[in-house]
């Protein structure tokens, strides 16, 4: 599927399903179409539908300006922890649109619910695109009315759905794995969008996880929150947190095993599968950053705690100077230690090691002679690993991001046009 397959999650307990998608888990269909919100003819309205009430969980942006669809989705999941569908549009964020924006989001929910024959509070809504513009509801209504036929015609329309959620993304992002629980084959799949305005805090731009695991809403929610902190919350493209960030998980329960809880013997394997799916999607978002030419991974070890390591790793990966140096293939380790030193976390300025891939550039906070030409060639690659060892305690973390290029400015200077 063209996504990064490496992961820090334990991979021995699950298998990647090469041709899998968000409709591989039992009970799910998906699809998308062009309703006219985008100027191009790319799909801009999509849905995932479950044939049974699915246990649901969500995490959301902490931006105080939260788009209307977040209120609707919170309400839907909060009613009984179940969903039958999620409806998504791109091309318009429906954010900072006042009471009319809220009314439009509720209408999207109720109209699609009526079309597929379920209660309104069994539908979640998500939007992404330009902030501050009202939805063209005449086009949205027409698209919603046409969606059920599209879903019926192609019950595995995951590619159409993935296209429908994109904005400035260059590639679709989807992954699927299988894991055995109680002798039953369980699938976990995910799809996401995100390219710019990425500095998540409790979510990503838009992400959707489907599974046929038997699990209740509350343990699913706790798992999703924990996994998000290690994956989607460890990526940054530009340091901006969106008004619309949302990650929703749905579990159909059709795999047929005994119910999963943290005490279940299969919990660790299932949690590893969910983490893998989210990590692959998070890294795909980082790699697809607006104008990006490289995926950058920062590994911090030897911190006083994992939380401290996460803060330092995200500060380094989010540094415009570090990102610019990577773009220019400049082995400027000074940018890296400067970022580590301003993260607000304990760092001993006498004990830090820094490496670019396998190239040691700083040892015990002293410069190490290295071959600049070798470093140049390494930094010209499409994946760059920055390793920082603080030599304090055992805290560790990994963050992902991308380089900062001329194209990032070009894309965002004309986003509305």
From TrEMBL:
Active site feature: 204 (nucleophile)
Catalytic activity as recorded in UniProt: L-glutamate + acetyl-CoA = N-acetyl-L-glutamate + CoA + H(+); N(2)-acetyl-L-ornithine + L-glutamate = N-acetyl-L-glutamate + L-ornithine
Sites marked Involved in the stabilization of negative charge on the oxyanion by the formation of the oxyanion hole: 128-129
Location, primary (coarse class): cytoplasm
Binding site for substrate: 167, 193, 204, 290, 412, 417
Root EC class: transferase
Localization annotation: Cytoplasm
Gene Ontology CC: cytoplasm
Pfam families per UniProt: ArgJ
Keywords: Acyltransferase, Amino-acid biosynthesis, Arginine biosynthesis, Autocatalytic cleavage, Cytoplasm, Multifunctional enzyme, Transferase
Site (Cleavage): 203-204
Record SUPFAM superfamilies: DmpA/ArgJ-like
Enzyme Commission code(s) on record: 2.3.1.35, 2.3.1.1
Function: Catalyzes two activities which are involved in the cyclic version of arginine biosynthesis: the synthesis of N-acetylglutamate from glutamate and acetyl-CoA as the acetyl donor, and of ornithine by transacetylation between N(2)-acetylornithine and glutamate.
Family from the record: Belongs to the ArgJ family.
Subunit: Heterotetramer of two alpha and two beta chains.
Name of the molecule in the record: Arginine biosynthesis bifunctional protein ArgJ
Organism this protein belongs to: Paenibacillus radicis
């Amino acid at each position: 599927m063209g996504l990064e397959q490496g992961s820090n999650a334990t991979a021995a307990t699950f298998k990647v399903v090469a041709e899998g998608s968000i409709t591989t888990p039992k009970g799910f269909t998906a699809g998308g179409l062009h309703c006219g919100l985008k100027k191009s003819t790319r799909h801009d309205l999509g849905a995932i539908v479950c044939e049974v009430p699915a246990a649901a969980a969500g995490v959301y942006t902490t931006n105080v300006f939260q788009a209307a669809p977040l209120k609707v989705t919170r309400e839907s999941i909060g009613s009984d922890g179940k969903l039958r569908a999620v409806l998504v549009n791109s091309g318009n964020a429906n954010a900072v649109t006042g009471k009319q924006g809220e009314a439009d989001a509720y209408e999207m929910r109720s109209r699609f619910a009526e079309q597929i024959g379920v209660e309104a509070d069994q539908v979640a809504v998500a939007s992404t695109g330009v902030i501050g513009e009202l939805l063209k509801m005449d086009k949205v209504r027409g698209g919603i009315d046409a969606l059920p036929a599209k879903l019926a015609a192609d019950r595995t329309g995951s590619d159409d759905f993935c296209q429908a959620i994109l904005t400035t993304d260059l590639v679709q992002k989807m992954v699927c794995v299988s894991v055995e629980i109680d002798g039953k084959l369980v699938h976990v799949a995910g799809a996401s969008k995100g390219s710019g305005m990425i500095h998540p805090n409790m979510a990503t731009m838009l992400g959707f996880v489907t599974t046929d695991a038997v699990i209740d809403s509350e343990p699913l929610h706790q798992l999703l929150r924990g996994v998000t902190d290690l994956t989607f919350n460890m990526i940054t493209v530009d340091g901006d947190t969106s008004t619309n960030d949302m990650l929703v998980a749905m579990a159909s329960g059709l795999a047929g095993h005994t119910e999963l809880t943290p005490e279940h013997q299969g919990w660790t394997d299932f949690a590893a599968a969910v983490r893998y799916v989210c990590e692959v999607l998070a890294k795909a978002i980082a790699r697809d950053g607006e104008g990006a030419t490289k995926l950058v991974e920062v590994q911090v070890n030897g911190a006083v705690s994992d939380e401290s390591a996460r803060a330092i790793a995200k500060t380094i990966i989010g540094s415009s100077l570090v990102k610019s140096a990577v773009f220019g293939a400049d082995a400027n380790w000074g940018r890296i230690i400067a970022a580590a030193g301003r993260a607000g976390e304990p760092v001993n300025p006498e004990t830090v090691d820094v490496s670019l891939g396998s190239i040691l550039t700083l040892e015990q906070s002293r410069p190490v002679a290295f071959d600049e030409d070798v470093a140049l060639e390494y930094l010209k690659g499409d994946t760059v690993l920055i390793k920082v060892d603080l030599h304090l305690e055992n805290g560790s973390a990994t963050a992902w991001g991308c380089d900062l290029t001329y194209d990032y400015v070009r894309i965002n200077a004309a986003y509305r046009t």
